[in-house]
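Key result, reporting period 2: structure in, sequence out.
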């Protein structure tokens, strides 16, 4: 994905991502975490990253 913090250009603002079936993704990734304590669900980390780079996410 271009525009991610690891390199490339950010998408033009304002940018909205519509995440269809977000609850399905949340359940499927429930056991995945990237924080060392294992307390923050992966989907929450992804949402936090997207917000930090200025991307609005609509969960559906």
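The corresponding designed sequence is given below.
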């Amino acid at each position: 994905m271009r525009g991610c913090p690891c390199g490339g250009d950010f998408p033009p603002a304002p940018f909205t991502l519509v995440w269809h079936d977000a609850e399905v993704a949340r359940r499927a990734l429930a056991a995945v975490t990237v924080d060392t304590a294992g307390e923050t669900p992966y989907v929450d980390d992804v949402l936090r990253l997207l917000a930090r780079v200025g991307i609005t996410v609509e969960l559906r």
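The mean pLDDT is 84. The two ends are 21 Å apart (CA to CA). This case is discussed further under Risks and Mitigation.
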